[in-house]
Amino acid sequence: MIPLKILGTGLYVPGTAISNSELKSLTGLDFNSEKLESKPGIFNRHIAHLRGIPETTADFATKAALSAIGVAGISGDDIGLFVVGTDTPEYISPSTSIIVQGRIQKQETWASTFDVSASCASFTIAFDTAARIMATDSSIQFAVIIGVYNMPAYIRPDDSFGYSIFADGAGAVVIGRTRETTSGYIGSQLLTDGTQYDYIGVYAGGTKMPVTQDVLDNKKQGLLSLQPLPGDRNVRLWPKVVNKLLTKYGLSIGDVDHFIFTQINRSVIAEVMEIIGAPITKTTTIMDKYGYTGSGCVPMAFHHAVNGGTIRRGDRVLFMASGAGLAVGSNLFIY
Fold first, then answer.
1. Under CATH, which architecture does the 184-197+229-334 domain have?
2. Which of 28, 69, 226, 249 reaches 20 to 30 Å from 174, CA-CA?
3. 4-177 CATH pick, 3.40.190.10, 3.40.47.10, 3.90.1150.10, 3.40.50.1980
4. Helix 266-276 and helix 233-248: axis angle, to 10°?
5. What would the pLDDT profile of 42-99 be if each residue is shown by its tens digit?
6. Structure pTM?
């Protein structure tokens, strides 16, 4: 176990919540809100540009990070590692983490920064990478890991599916070294299948498809769903990854005090909890408040669970995230 402790959590969403009925009014689009509420469990979300708020990914990430740093009781200057997990970056280059470091530390420092882009698994993989870096570099005393999502910036005006599901938000954690034996980072289990890259994503803007007038005219920019995702993907994947992770470290389902999954579908989370044999009380869902916030949803749900008292010091916690690509990341740690 790596002797690291989560010292603080933070969350940021832009503006006031937008209900399903108000979303239809603001966008002029129609969608089946009853189905959206009954299965995925989405009732509200926050979308900066629909509220006229001039904020984007780096703004969300910085505010969530500052919140977590404040809870941790340290100075932003104490951070030696900034890691941002997102597939909706501020720019293609430079990285969003560099911008966050500049806004918080405001000068050249000995801190390290990098982004992790692994679709909606970005935060869990960023968390694992940061923990392993700190395990080998004793000069880093504190790190901030941020999961952030601004997919609504990529949604075309006529995309009723995209607007009904995706939302803006960021969650962050500050980790620091500890001598306590009651907290620590246990490990991870990752899974990848790059043959699924052409299901859903943002394909324009990179070297393969620069944004040109032809791309805009043919509506190839922004979020595209090229083919349907397998309907049972997460129900099949999540239990398999959870069990492999626990087996790797000699633990069982009953040894985990709380599970946090990608917040894409409440009914899927309930089904997975039943499959693995854990009570629904051992998980947290927040899609009713925030919609689907991709890379940001796991740390956002964790923030709610910590502040709501459902996760307490000494609890063994498991993060499980998956996203397009296919990328899957999981973490196991003692809070």
1. 3-Layer(aba) Sandwich (3.40)
2. 249
3. 3.40.47.10
4. 40
5. 999 999 999 999 999 999 999 999 999 999 999 999 999 999 999 999 999 999 999 9
6. 0.96
